[in-house]
């Protein structure tokens, strides 16, 4: 009895899927999780370090490649590398629940520290502590908006009085 292992099968580990809908079709690319953010912030320049494979998929997890006709129709080109760059720049990155929670907690703390820097107790003329601001934000059920920067959320018109 012999065990058959497919030779053309590529195992994708540590995968971040970046999705983009264009022309009514969904296109996906397989990337390395931590490298997508550094690519978008222009810290990472090498595309090979970001992408796991220079292929455009319809479904990464099932390994279904995008058809050439679909790529031509949606992107006006069948150059996989250029399409990967477009998807990387404009596509949406799938993040896990823990990552999202961690990001929200960090933003919450950043907002609290910015508010603490700007506020002074009028009675004692001493600055409020970050923990006091955090507690007050939790008491009023302040919700962090992940789509806005921390500085935008702290601006005067966004703070409820």
Explain what you see.
- Helices cover 42% and strands 14% of the residues.
- The chain contains 7 helices and 5 strands.
- Strands 2-1-5 form a 3-stranded antiparallel β-sheet. Strands 3-4 form a two-stranded antiparallel ribbon.
- Strand 3 and strand 4 (64-65) form a beta hairpin.
Structural class: alpha+beta
Low-confidence segments: none
Rounded to the nearest angstrom, the radius of gyration is 22 Å
* Most strands sheet: 3 strands, antiparallel
Give the topology string: H per helix, E per strand: EEHHEEHHEHHH
Q: How confident is the prediction overall: mean pLDDT?
A: 83
The tally of beta strands, per DSSP, is: 5
What gross morphology would you assign? elongated
Q: What is the helix content?
A: 40-55%
Distance between the termini: 75 Å
Beta-strand residue percentage: 5-15%
Task: Strand order, main sheet: write it out.
Answer: 2-1-5
Number of helices: 7
